[in-house]
Amino acid sequence: xxxxxxxxxxxxxxxxxxxxxxxxxxxxxxxxxxxxxxxxxxxxxxxxxxxxxxxxxxxxxxxxxxxxxxxxxxxxxxxxxxxxxxxxxxxxxxxxxxxxxxxxxxxxxxxxxxxxxxxxxxxxxxxxxxxxxxxxxxxxxxxxxxxxxxxxxxxxxxxxxxxxxxxxxxxxxxxxxxxxxxxxxxxxxxxxxxxxxxxxxxxxxxxxxxxxxxxxxxxxxxxxxxxxxxxxxxxxxxxxxxxxxxxxxxxxxxxxxxxxxxxxxxxxxxxxxxxxxxxxxxxxxxxxxxxxxxxxxxxxxxxxxxxxxxxxxxxxxxxxxxxxxxxxxxxxxxxxxxxxxxxxxxxxxxxxxxxxxxxxxxxxxxxxxxxxxxxxxxxxxxxxxxxxxxxxxxxxxxxxxxxxxxxxxxxxxxxxxxxxxxxxxxxxxxxxxxxxxxxxxxxxxxxxxxxxxxxxxxxxxxxxxxxxxxxxxxxxxxxxxxxxxxxxxxxxxxxxxxxxxxxxxxxxxxxxxxxxxxxxxxxxxxxxxxx
Length: 531
Ligand code: ACM
Description:
Layout: E1 2-10, E2 15-18, H1 24-38, E3 43-45, E4 53-58, E5 67-71, E6 76-80, H2 83-99, E7 101-104, E8 107-117, E9 123-129, H3 137-149, E10 154-158, E11 160-161, E12 164-165, E13 186-187, E14 191-195, E15 198-202, E16 206-207, H4 219-231, E17 235-242, H5 247-252, H6 282-296, E18 303-307, H7 314-317, H8 320-329, H9 335-351, E19 355-359, H10 361-364, H11 370-376, E20 379-382, H12 386-395, E21 400-402, H13 433-438, H14 448-451, E22 454-461, H15 469-476, H16 479-488, H17 496-512
Parallel strand pairs: 2-3, 2-4, 4-6, 9-10, 9-22, 10-17, 17-18, 18-19, 19-20, 20-21, 21-22
Antiparallel strand pairs: 1-8, 5-6, 5-8, 7-8, 11-12, 13-16, 14-15
Helix pairs in contact: 1-2, 2-17, 3-4, 6-9, 9-11
The structure holds acetamide.
């Protein structure tokens, strides 16, 4: 970043022009965004006209996500390696505009500057669990808006879990009737409190003892979300969590469990269930494949997440089919059945042109078949143990995504503080913004060979306690911004004091967008006192 002399006047007279048709949607998107956020809508043209243009162009000597943004009093020039990179430059320009002084109602004075930028990691993700509580399509889009503002390029959509199945599958309609409702829900309504000139949010969670659902997304709604994300240069990574965290599916189709005569109920609270898919039953495996086939037709991103976390083997151990399959495999640990299931699903995904993501248990659980995992080419999403999981993935030649669970730092649904009045949330401790910011996803001790496999970072949001969009934003922000920065900025350039300073500007953009965020990190923050 190079600070220059003078200011560019951004006003409704400003014209955005571009040198390549592929930039038209990005130019239009930015004009609308600027209008929403700053009340100033520039015009669009395919060639420079008038004074004070914003000139967008592609430069194929740049990397795909690399850009330059040059603001002078006469013009703003943006060059990017792709429309996506130009989009990122414009997100930076939006941030500058949000923070800039106004010379009149619809004009902003943008300080002259030259920025040359590109991301540190290729995968910059955010997960949302919509099973423990669903978020409407509009709310999911609003979450995606937050990702776009922070140059996050992957939306990991956790669509199925023990507490609810949320994706319409036409071959299996009971998934979204029986599988998409439960008897009660643990909801946490939160409210704003203003005390001592400070803004706080507070709320107590409680069981509703009311039926929750059936709630799910139709296939058309999922396609709509995919389109919406694509307009913001975000890929959607769908997850169907298997063979554990599968109670909602087994409540609907108990014949695919290890006890076909006893349907489990969709869970109300969080935890780990012993009821899992019977991976030794070919019909159960086919059920999983059929679900994946339908979803792969909806999500164009060439990767599919098959979950694989927290899967007890206890029911497999006493199941005749599982015992027989283990014998055939010539293995001793029942965990090997999970690896064999992953292998079969991976072959199926490959037949659909897709590659696989799994949670780190696929390689970190004792008894997992590491030779098979090595051949799978899977991307390993590392949460617990995160760093040793990533090191192991790299040693197997597999790519790793860092989403650290330890001390909650990349689990952005954890409690923002232990201060009085803080809303009920999963996890205690001091899961604070600074810990998230200071976490090092790629430690300096990792060899350069292994480091190539550390391909990204992700903020992970579980919704057991979170029943409203307000609360989602309050917990996610600004921690998601810390993770976005770890995704974008080289470790040696990160600095917490600098982040806090910049946040006083970035919160203007959040305020303009009407987003709710936690304030514990602010220098003048005073914790709420018990009365
Ligand atoms: C997880 O948190 N169970 C991936």
